[in-house]
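Many introductory courses stop at the sequence. We go one step further.
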Amino acid sequence: MPDRPLTPEEQRAERRRGILDATAALLAGTPVAKLSIGDIGRAVGLATSNVLRYFESREAILLDLLDEQQSGWAAALDARIAHSDAPLPERAAAAARLLAESLEERPVLCELLTARSAVLERDISVHVLLRHRYAAADVEESLVPVVRRLLPELVPHRAHRLVTTTLLAVPAVWPQAHPSRSLLAVFEADPLLAREQRGFADALARLVEDVALGLVSRA
């Protein structure tokens, strides 16, 4: 027996799903700054005008994708963090390492977080931006009890601060860990200038660990 025809709402959801999936695939090899809505349309076989029937702009597509990426990250992190009776310094280091490594495993998420404030949240409708910010707040709140499994010394609002600080640090650390060709040439010309260069997970974990210990000490 043939499947029933899709309703208009289902067709729209399916088309939006295809656009988001194509955008995620494109971001695996194209920086956010160089990705156009025309590129996205070509990837799904749609004219730009037709893509805009499903999303109001390129930024709206990328913010929706960011919401999905953050939700997936939070769910994966929830499955990885477990209670521990180790001393506080060890638990703080473990929490920082898990946060950093779980983000490094999601380069599309890191690219989108890096572009969010400077690019994606500009020239966007209040409706789309509100929806994104509510989704982001939900993810942050969902991670509070996850973080507190390893660091129960942190009261909820300080655990929340650790989560938000981690996310705010990504736009600073990600580009430094992925230098441009010009900067790589500079490092090659003078290796001393590269002595503080670190991989993303290492650099972010060190920062998050310091913040975690600082938040605990303030408590």
